[in-house]
User: Fold this.
Amino acid sequence: VEANEGPTPVLDLGAFVGELTVEDDAASDDVSLEGLEQELQDYKTDDVVAIILSKGTKLRDYTKDVENNLRQLELDSIEDYIKESDNLVSLHDQIHDCDTILAQMEKLLSGFQAEIGSISSDIKVLQEKSMDMGLKLKNRKAAESKLAKFVEDIIIPPRMIDIIVDGEVNEEYMRTLEILSKKLKFVETDTMVKTSKALNDVQPELEKLRQKAVSKEDKHTVLKEVDMYFKLGVGVPGVLMVYFTPLYVILFLKEHGKEVYLEVRAAYIDTMNKVLSTKIRAYIQALEKLQLDIATSSDLIGIDTRSTSLFLRGKEPLKNRSAVFALGERINILKEIDESALIPHIAEASSKKYPYEVLFRSMHKLLMDTAASEYLFCDEFFGEQPMFYDIFAGPFAVVDEHLNTILPNCFDAIGLMLMIRIIYQHQLIMSRRRIPCLDSYLDKVNISLWPRFKMVFDMHLNSLRNANVRTLWEDDVHPHYVMRRYAEFTASLIQLNVDYGDGQLELNLERLRMAVDDLLVKLAKLFRKPKLQTVFLINNYDMTIAVLKEAGPEGGKIQLHFEELLKSNTAIYVEELLVEHFSDLIKFVKTRASEDPSSSSERPITVTEVEPIVKDFASRWKAAIELMHNDVITSFSNFLCGMEILRAALTQLLLYYTRLSDCMKRIAGGSALNKDLVSISSIMYEIRKYSRTF
Assistant:
């Protein structure tokens, strides 16, 4: 059917099947058509069937063609088989021969298999025997190892006996002693040994060796060795004791000779206690010869220097007196806190004297280093830290005795505060070393220093509160020596409190400040003229501020307090100075300049009232300023402070005169006085001229 002839017609299998008749095939009786319909439906979509049907060929004809083709193929196949018949016969013979050979091999392999099975049984028996022998060997080795170790631990070699009995205490002796200790521990602790018959033979000999070893290191030997250290010039015996009496000897005595160990321990404690006490006492006595006396009970802030004996003062250098209140270079001791202690004979040879805090630091530096070394030695050598305190009971008592003699006679408050800071720094050093042996001692010293400092500080405070004002007063407006003492003393303590922030010390300084304030005001009132009183106060406040600033950039509350007092007294002095030279001008400006001239007041401002003031100022203002300048120069010790005050006075004068000029502009007829007015620029020029001087 052509594609352009319309849709492809649907093939009707029933039409083809319907053409088949049962009578056309002789064998049709044997064919069952059951299920044919289903098979036709299944093959409906088969490609081959579809091609056959599309050609329009009848199924019977197609079937016959297929059968003919099959018969032809069968005949061709038979013909090919006949042609190859000789080869097939040869192949058959070969296969038969192979079967014969394979049968023989099968028989041979079966024999081998039987033999291998027999060998496998033999190998299994041998393996079991080998495992049994290996287990026995392992058990015997374990038993031999234990027995060998037992024999090694319990046997006493002749060489060991010779070394312990007759040998010198050297490295070989130490090794032998260690072996003996192990044998003694083995006999004492091993349960197997206690049931062994060998113990009966060995134990008596071990006990003899133990007694002999213990007898070699008794207390007399230790004392002899300690004495040897000092003959060699060793300062701290414990440091080198390990080289003479090795550590293992002490451990041996501790474990196997308890009674002798206790005797050795007690002998060491007693000897070291006495030796260290003697050495430290001798060192302290040598330091005392180097002491420079700084202060006595009369060296107080509020005590009149003229009341003390000139004979006593003549014996002491002037520079020592200044150290009573000023810290100066004494603070360097805190920067040298971990330096080596002084060597007395070297310092004495140079004829140099030191403030007590220097000797205090050296004494505690030596004590600290000695204590740290001995503490570590006791811990490592004896394994007992507490015995350190038994050893150092004597040295601590020596130092306490010395301090109990020195502190009651110490009136140097700055030195006492330096000692407090030294103790604090030493506590930090011991803390960094992680050695706590001096904690309680340093706390005790610190506790003893604070009350003494407080007592001396209160002596200074009471000297100000109870000072005889008339005895202290001098007819001189320059800074008073009592105020200078106070300033230096306060600055010193502030400087020593910078890194510590001690609130109690700050409170005491505030009490001292209040006392000196009262005393200074009382001294100022003894001047007859108020102006001199103010000048006296300004000079003292200015000096105090300068000293406090030298001690540090921040003077704290005390410096701020004196700065406020300086500011207020400067304002008072400026007014007093101006009133002295321009009283009429200032009186008018304060009382009348603020009034309105055009108001209907009872007494209006007139030209007649102002004219004398203006002419008086114009006639002598330059001379008055020069007098003010000379007055300031002679009144104030600090040139810069005086110039600041003069500039403040001239500035205030300019303000007063400006207010007068403004007032004249509002007065009727005031322009007539313009010719007598001094120009503001002229006054400014004069002010700048004096400003250039500083």
Observations:
- The mean pLDDT is 80.
- The chain has 30 helices and no strands.
